[in-house]
Amino acid sequence: MSTIETDPVDPQVEVLSARDVPLGGPRAMTVRRTLPQRARTLIGAWCFVDHYGPDDVAATGGMDVAPHPHIGLQTVSWLFSGEIEHRDSHGVHAFVRPGEVNLMTSGYGICHSEVSTPGTTVLHGVQLWVALPEEHRHTGRDFQHHVPAPVALDGGEARVFLGTLAGDTSPVPTFTPLLGAELTLRPAATITLTVDPAFEHGLLVDQGEVTMAGTALKPAELGYLAPGPTTLPLANTGSTPARLILLGGPPFEERIVMWWNFIGRDHQEIVAAREAWQNASDRFGSVTGYPGDRLPAPVLPGAILTPRGNPPVAQAG
């Protein structure tokens, strides 16, 4: 669901509401998904925003996502609490921990598993995808890990895991210009960030009551602002700390097909990728060390999958 705010301070902030989605097959956990949705497919090259927790693992069982494939994208994992064990067909065995970014590139094809560790009591974080541009979407498998240092803001702090913000630049390479950062704001704090006017921006609220360029956002909502502004004013209007994820990038002009864990450009490409996975093709490789079977692909819909993009971007005032 999407609504356009009519706040007189800045009427151009679009508020995207989350929907609940089961993730991970038979032992699914529920996540809150704000991107993609009918009103908006991408923010920059960011094409997928899942927000989950705080999840009491003792009650829910936590995360157990069996080996599954990807094409045409990068996964960006960021935690607030808990720990996830990652294994992939690039041979990487790593852990996702709070304040540490793990970026996996699928390109032509990869598969991986994600399991919360036995010591995790509360699982809480975001899972993000980035669409790869045409010239790089068949690139080879890769994995990057980075621990960003906190950067002091006047009223909070930032951890920049991709791109540049507040004088800090992440060393993690990307195929299109991107911004990804965790922000924390102290109670009643107001900050103004200098941002790239060529970027569109999305602000996901994890906790707290905040405003983005004058528009109120509640927890689990994603605020969108079109390119144009050189500054982004944010305010914590509540009496407790606020935690936010800021995403950005120049508008991604390519139209994409998103189905299951694949990003392609047309229906036949998705059909071919699904067939390769179902037939255990070398295209995706295999995961070593996961104690169970891999996820089968769901049945394709009866209709032809058609490419989608965003509506034309109007510059924000």
From TrEMBL:
Location of the Pirin C-terminal domain: 182-280
Which residues fall in a coiled-coil region? none
Family annotation (Gene3D superfamilies): Jelly Rolls
Q: InterPro entries of this UniProt entry? A: Pirin (IPR012093), Pirin_C_dom (IPR008778), Pirin_N_dom (IPR003829), RmlC-like_jellyroll (IPR014710), RmlC_Cupin_sf (IPR011051)
Occurrences of domain Pirin N-terminal (ranges): 30-130
Membership in a protein family: Belongs to the pirin family.
List, alphabetically, the PANTHER family matched.
Answer: PIRIN (PTHR13903:SF8), PIRIN-RELATED (PTHR13903)
Q: What name does the UniProt record give this protein? A: Pirin family protein
Q: Which organism is it from?
A: Kitasatospora cystarginea
